[in-house]
Design brief:
The protein is built from 3 helices and 2 strands, in the order H-E-H-E-H. It has 74 residues and is an alpha+beta fold. The radius of gyration is 16 Å and the shape is flat. The model has no long low-confidence stretch (mean pLDDT 80).
Amino acid sequence: MVLAATSLGFGAVWKSAPVLDTAAVKDLFKLGEREQLLGWVNLGAAGEPSRKKDTASDEDVLTALVTYIGGSEA
């Protein structure tokens, strides 16, 4: 996935962390007892992002996309 994204001109990086083995993450992904999340791929693009005219504020858009895992919302 990282190589494919890179070949399409995106920035991509495989991420892994100790948080992947927590109950909150396992619950979020509905992992079974014998399943394990190994990591995820972060994708990005360089340059100016294209923006559509939207009535929603950036905060509303981000709130809809963010999932808090454990702890409290910042």
